Amino acid sequence: MNDTNQTWLITGSSIGRALAEQYASAPEVGQVIYTWRSKEPTFGSPKVKPLQVDLTSELDIENLVGNLDKLDGIINATGFLHDEKHKPEKAIARFTPEGLVRSIELNTLPTALLAKHARKLLKASPSSTFATISAKVGSIEDNRLGGWYSYRASKAALNMMLKTLAIEWRIALPHCSVAALHPGTVESPLSRPFTGRHHNVMTPEESAGHLKQILDGLNPDKTGRFWSWDGSELPW
Ligand SMILES: NC(=O)c1ccc[n+]([C@@H]2O[C@H](COP(=O)([O-])OP(=O)(O)OC[C@H]3O[C@@H](n4cnc5c(N)ncnc54)[C@H](OP(=O)(O)O)[C@@H]3O)[C@@H](O)[C@H]2O)c1
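Structure tokens for the assembled complex are given below, as produced in the milestone run.
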């Protein structure tokens, strides 16, 4: 991108916040619009504008994009794996309708709404990026361990959204690169109960650094792909 006054929209409290810090310190970025849901963060950089948004609300997203003329990039780093009521299911006997609906609502829906409403803003940029943090466990081909039905299914649905969007936008927004990203295993409230067995748990800052490197290297010839944090490509 040659633009020296880029505007990025970034969401999500751990990896997303680290991405917002890193984009705010990039010289080509003039503003980062950062959305939060439950806890207002503070940022060192005056380039970051935090806004409270519920990304499952179409009205909230319409209001968010309504005041903007152009976006050069969107990175949605929100998601859901567990709460007090819902845990990832080790076996189908643990599956609940509410768990699946909640997973789809928080892992799949926000990206669809962002794409629908921010399309014209990305079109106004000479070179734009539309990325969402998915998860390797959303890959159908890579599924060897099983389990986590609702999370896997909602991330697989998210991946299908992104792949389908890339096909539509290859014609409609030929300057936009669409990407699904796997951030690696990263320390965060979402992953905390499950990282015990992992040796290489990254900080959100480390993961964000890797993801930014991937996004910096994107171009429309690479649209519609699923990238792992280390730069390798994952099967859908
Ligand atoms: N951490 C890992 O090891 C790992 C591995 C693979 C994939 N991922 C993916 O990476 C992404 C980021 O996760 P993370 O690890 O950075 O965890 P995180 O800090 O817990 O981030 C999840 C975010 O989603 C937000 N959120 C949930 N529902 C929302 C809604 N309706 N509107 C707006 N925001 C909402 C949460 O907001 P609140 O803070 O207000 O709850 C939180 O900011 C997720 O998509 C996750 O599936 C993470």
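The chain has a mean pLDDT of 96. The chain has six helices and seven strands. Further analysis is deferred to the final report.
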